[in-house]
């Protein structure tokens, strides 16, 4: 189905998605301000963790959506989704640093080293930083398209680390349902890229 919105329509779609992407944050802040969650700190840490993972999957789904539908314009939404991944990851990390360690960096780092599921989440977050920092047009120009693309392939490491972090956390409760669902989603999204890159390679005799 051909759907080729004009630049103005794309601007409108982007603005609408921007507001939608902020809603989970606004909802969480509202519910906590109203005193609804019984465990507000846990509610915020977990809610922001969930939305980091959702936006990671949404960002990775842009290229498959473009290839399957021919909607090339969706690529223009990818940067915004990537930045929302970072936004929720930063909130998630801030919750941990604040609620678990009262901004004591040394204590926080000790915890990062001590608990493997935190170690993995922390590595994923640290790897997200250069991606967010190089998301501007000026940085793309400065790095050059090819190097920028190579750097942004880090997302193929970040996503499995995010799943491993989630899996490890839930393993303590013997509850694997959601990690399996998201593990399959990420495996399909990354598997498609492997398939496309192998299919593109010229056959050697
Ligand atoms: C790409 C990076 C990350 C992703 C995708 C991610 C994702 C998640 C998810 C999905 C959860 C489970 C939420 C639920 O129970 O529904 C979670 C929990 C958690 N994450 Fe992360 N996370 C990331 C980075 C981090 C970092 C950097 C830290 C801290 C250094 C961290 C600390 C935690 C903690 C403390 C919990 C809650 C554990 C509990 O309540 O028992 N995460 N994360």
TrEMBL record:
State whether keyword Iron-sulfur applies: no
Q: Does the keyword Hydrolase apply?
A: no
Function noted in UniProt: Part of the MsrPQ system that repairs oxidized periplasmic proteins containing methionine sulfoxide residues (Met-O), using respiratory chain electrons. Thus protects these proteins from oxidative-stress damage caused by reactive species of oxygen and chlorine generated by the host defense mechanisms. MsrPQ is essential for the maintenance of envelope integrity under bleach stress, rescuing a wide series of structurally unrelated periplasmic proteins from methionine oxidation.
Gene Ontology terms: biological process: protein repair
What protein name does the entry list? Answer: Protein-methionine-sulfoxide reductase heme-binding subunit MsrQ
Assigned keywords, A-Z: Cell membrane, Electron transport, Flavoprotein, FMN, Heme, Iron, Membrane, Metal-binding, Transmembrane, Transmembrane helix, Transport
Q: Which cofactor does it need?
A: FMN; heme b
Q: Which residues cross the membrane?
A: 51-68, 80-99, 119-139, 151-168, 180-198
GO-annotated molecular function? electron transfer activity; FMN binding; heme binding; metal ion binding; oxidoreductase activity, acting on diphenols and related substances as donors
Family recorded in the similarity comment: Belongs to the MsrQ family.
Q: Where in the cell is it found?
A: Cell membrane; Membrane
